Amino acid sequence: MLGQIRIVMIHTTHPGNIGGVARAMQNMGLTDLCLVAPKRFPDPEADARASGATDLLASAKVVETLDEALDGCHLVVGTSARDRHIPWPVITPRQMASVACDLQPGKRMAILFGREDRGLTNDELHRCHHHVHIPTNPDFSSLNVAAAVQVIAYELRIASLESEPGLLPQWGTAWDIDLADARETELLFEHLEKTLVGVEFLDPDNPRQLMTRLRRLFLRAVPDRVEVNVMRGFLSAIDKVLARNPRMKGEEKNDV
Amino acid sequence: MLGQIRIVMIHTTHPGNIGGVARAMQNMGLTDLCLVAPKRFPDPEADARASGATDLLASAKVVETLDEALDGCHLVVGTSARDRHIPWPVITPRQMASVACDLQPGKRMAILFGREDRGLTNDELHRCHHHVHIPTNPDFSSLNVAAAVQVIAYELRIASLESEPGLLPQWGTAWDIDLADARETELLFEHLEKTLVGVEFLDPDNPRQLMTRLRRLFLRAVPDRVEVNVMRGFLSAIDKVLARNPRMKGEEKNDV
């Protein structure tokens, strides 16, 4: 889907923003950048802000008119910061991303970004099927154009990733260790309870909720096998100290 | 919810990025910015890139250590670009935003952003309950720090707009105890390490990944205040046993 998206920057004034847009696009896997009558391009400032996305910048298509920029595009979305005199269908970046996922193969969607100072003109906005609005803080709504492209491109990338079958492993990351099974975990709690009594932190005659709280703590983390072994090893080390140490009764107990 | 979020920038080199972050934050309605030992701040470049978000920039707290930055925070999330030697629970920006929506009233979440060149150190990442990863293009994954904050702040804003004012409690259930804050949790780890050495389970000359694995285990559970106190009490009980027991050197160490 990302290959069906064209980012169109119209009458951009600062070449640094073009570079920032190129970097944001490449970060998110977009490749098709079209510049309508940029004030200064190519420009060293653009290369600097692109910081590595220079191929994308070099492949950017520079045209004179919006018509040329929309050549071969089937769906046109305009980014709009402010309310318009004539209301237009406004979608969120996330809705726009799901629209992009519905693009038929071979169809292209153009997303228009306007001038740094005034955004898109009404004529330009009236070329659009949808307007997309990034819900910024009403008291401070002016988004830098590269930041706006960053947000739009991010939503497109997330939608394209979610549309693929993706199995998230445990805790959202590839884990290094097998999960402990229920038996291993129970043996840990048995050992823990024994040692808690050994160090006289747990009073068998007055256990209160101690083991329950410790169970809740450890189980919430869903320990893996090495973590259980580490805890067992810690407990065994405590047991060793206890083994060479006479139990002293009647010490004051720690309060829970 | 947005008022419960603190953005923490660690050892930022370029003041322009601090300004860009301030602008991104204010665009999305975040207000709490903390800078850990920035290289140059305040700086005209920061003011320029902030373009209007100067109040937020002026109110940014500058501290020397991460501990100070995490003062009063209960949930710590680190932004991480690359895979770690020991995997950590990784969530997406959207999952992070829903975690933020689950914050109980008065609880604060810190989101850590690292150096422009090297990101966060392992020590810094090991202070985090979660790592958040922005799924960038694997072939071009280096996100500008202001762009990363833009994406994270955008997801937070969207989630806050979508979420009811009725706050979901931690872990999707009404909890009985306050979350431990970052300082209380760190004191637990300091105590744990000391006691692990005391019982000769942790060899200071060969610590291996022991503390890292234990941090990962406990932080994954996001301990509450009583759970931390229970663990501290357990450790104190072990310390008492050790206090009346002569250390015996040269025992075989448990393997991890």
UniProtKB/TrEMBL annotation, chains A, B:
Principal location: cytoplasm
Keywords of this entry: Cytoplasm, Methyltransferase, S-adenosyl-L-methionine, Transferase, tRNA processing
E.C. designation(s): 2.1.1.200
Ranges for domain tRNA/rRNA methyltransferase SpoU type: 5-154
Gene3D superfamilies in the record: 1.10.8.590, 3.40.1280.10
Pfam families according to UniProt: SpoU_methylase
Subcellular location(s) per record: Cytoplasm
GO aspect biological process, one term: tRNA nucleoside ribose methylation
A molecular function GO annotation: tRNA (cytidine(32)/uridine(32)-2'-O)-methyltransferase activity
Domain of life: Bacteria
Cellular component GO terms, alphabetical: cytosol
CDD domains from the UniProt entry: SpoU-like_TrmJ (cd18093)
Main function: Catalyzes the formation of 2'O-methylated cytidine (Cm32) or 2'O-methylated uridine (Um32) at position 32 in tRNA.
Similarity comment: Belongs to the class IV-like SAM-binding methyltransferase superfamily. RNA methyltransferase TrmH family.
Name of the featured protein: tRNA (cytidine/uridine-2'-O-)-methyltransferase TrmJ
Annotated organism of origin: Nitrincola iocasae
Taxonomy of the source species: Bacteria, Pseudomonadati, Pseudomonadota, Gammaproteobacteria, Oceanospirillales
